[in-house]
Amino acid sequence: MDNFRNKFCSFNTKFLKIHLKGGKRKKLNKKTESGKEPPGSWLGTHLLLELKDCGPKTLTNLEFVSETLKNAAIEAKATVVEVAFHEFSPFGISGMVVIAESHLAIHTWPEYDYAAVDVFTCGTLIDPMVAAEYLIEKFQSKNPQIFEMKRGVLGLEKMPHKIEVEIKSSAKSGHAPEEKSEEDEQFPLVLLGAACM
To answer: Which helix (H) or strand (E) holds 102?
Structure first.
């Protein structure tokens, strides 16, 4: 995934990153020594995709566009809640895949081989860049751009809607709980509030 990010990333402001094909990331954010915001110090990540020079047949088929957006959500391990799409006359498709973690939305302009896509995910459990990479590939965009923005940057060190919980296998299987591994200690499960599950 880092190779994909580096391939499309060249400009980074405090909370907005513009990913351009063939560019390199500049770290301008001074929030931490690494130049990145501490993980989880925002509510969500919003990617705006400019899919230019798309495959000629990819933007005109309602079923293909709908399935592609839904599959992008699934590929990113999101929980699909609802799917709604509409085809316009003479051409163009708009639609949205509502996910428990937020949404994916698209508007196509097949006459320009162009699609505008939003991928918005709450929390840090899902990587929206996985969905973006999938969409770029499936729509065959030869000239994609990705604008990344952190949403809900509230300046809080800890987000009160995120709570760490321990899952015990005994609750589901009736067996004795397993020992926690070192990896479990480093990566605790985080459950999000109802708005950003």
So the answer is: strand 102-109
Q: At what angle do helices 62-75 and 128-138 cross, to 10 degrees?
A: 150
pLDDT digits (tens, 9 = 90+) for 24-46: 333 323 344 444 555 557 889 99
Would the pTM of this model clear 0.85, i.e. be above it? no
Kindly list the catalytic residues.
102, 107, 122
Q: What is the structure's pLDDT at 42?
A: 82
What's CA 179's distance to the chain center, in Å? 33
Domains of the chain: 2-151 (3.60.90.10), 163-196 (no CATH)
Amino acid letter for position 85: F
Say how far apart CA 128 and CA 169 lie, in whole Å.
29
Distances (CA, A) of 44 to 47, 122, 193: 10, 4, 13
